[in-house]
Design goal:
- The protein is an alpha+beta fold.
- It has a domain at 1-60 and 97-132 and 197-269 and 356-415: 3-Layer(bba) Sandwich (FAD/NAD(P)-binding domain).
- Helices cover 33% and strands 27% of the residues.
- The chain has twelve helices and 23 strands.
- The strands form four sheets. Strands 4, 6, 7, 8, 15, 16, 17, 18, 19, 20 and 21 form an eleven-stranded mixed sheet that branches. Strands 10-2-1-14-23-22 form a six-stranded mixed sheet, with helices on one face.
- β17 (298-303) and β18 form a beta hairpin.
- This is FAD-dependent oxidoreductase.
- Its EC number is 1.-.-.-.
Amino acid sequence: MGKHVIVLGAGIVGVCCALELLRRGASVTLVDRQYPGMETSMGNAGVLARSSLMPFNHPGLWGQLPRLLKNNTVQFRYRPKFLAANLGWATRFLLNARPSVFKETVQALDSLIRLSAPEHLKLMDAAGVRHRLRDTGWVFLYRSEQAWNGSALARQTYAQHQVQTQTLSPAELAEMEPALAPIFHRALWIKGSYSVDDPHAVVAAYADLFRRSGGAFKHLTATSIRRDGQGWTVQGSEASESLTADQLVVALGPWSKSLLKTTGIDLPMAFERGYHMHYSGLNGATISRPIYDTGGGYVLSPMARGLRLTTGVELDDCDAPARPVQLDLSEARAREAFPLGDRLDPAAWLGRRPTLPDSRPMIGQAPRAPGLWLALGHQHIGFSTAPGTAKILGELMSENADPEQHRAFRPSRFI
C-alpha cells in the first residue's frame, strides 16, 4: 500500500486488520489504551463456529418479545432508561428481523465466517498458538420438547447453509459429555466448528506476530479524530499526545460510537453487555467442548483458567456500572446441569458487544470521509469473523475493490 495507516483498537478485529494491512505493504501503527486483547476480546466463549451466522434478530424474535420485555429472563435483561433512550435503534433492530432482511444477514455472516476460519488457522500457525485450538465443535442443549421445536428455524437455516450438525439423544449426550446432569430432552452438536482455551492469549499472540513482522504498537487513549489535509489525526487524552497518518481505521468496537461522534458520525449502535466467571469442577468434573444451555441462557466453555461461564444479553450504556445479577441467575441454572465448584475470579468480568440494527458489522470507508475506514459492530461474533473482516478491508483499501462486492457490510447503510 505504501502508506502509513493507524488502526485504532487492539481487540481481535483491530489486530487482524493491522496484520492484514502490514502484509499488504502499509506502515501500520496499532493504537489502544490497553494492551492487545484486554477489552471485549478477552472474555468471550472462545467459539469459532459456522452456527454464528444466526443473528439474534431473526423472524422468531417477534414471538419472544412479550416474554423478553418482562425483563426477568436469564437470557435477556435491559435497563429501562437505556432502552427508552435508544428506541430508534430498538425499532430498527426489530424491523431487521423480517424474513427478507434476515435472509440477507445470514448469507452475509455465513460468507464472513467462511472467509475467516482458514485465515484464523494460518494466523494461529504463524503466531504459534495452534495448540490452543479444539476441533470438537460445540453443543446446544434443550431442556424440553417445546424448546427443541422452537429451534426449528435455526436448524433449517443451518441445513440451508451446509452447517454440519447432529441431533443427540439423552443417551448420546451422556456418552459425549458424561458430567452433564440428565435434564436435557435433546441436543444439537454443531460439528466442523472450533474453539480455543484462551481467547485473550490468541489475540496477544497475534499482536506479538504483528510487532515481530514490523508493526508498531502505541499506548494512547483516543479522545477525538479529525481530518488534517490529506490525512487523519488522532488526539490523545493529553494535549501533547497526537498521531497522524494517511489513513485511519476505527476498530474500537463499542467505543467506536463515542469516538466517531467527534468527527460528526453518529452510529446507530447499542451495547449487548455480558459477564463471565471461571469455576472449578467438583471432583474434577469437566466438559470437552463448549456447551450452550438454551434454557439456562449461558455458555460453559473449558478454558485454560477453568470452566468459563458466559451470560446472555444485558442492554445498557457501554460504560454503565456492572450489574452481575445476570451472572448469578446463569450460575444457578448452570448448577442444575453441571457440578460447578467454586468461583475462581475475584469479580465478574464485564464485556460489551457492539451491535448495529441489522446485526452485521460495518466494513469499508465512511461516506464523505476519505481515508477514514470502519471495521466495527461485530456483535457476538467478532472472534469468529475478525480475519475475514481484515481481508475485506485490505481489499477495499489497497486494491480499489468494488464496494458492491461487500455491500452487505457497507457503512453507508447507516451513515
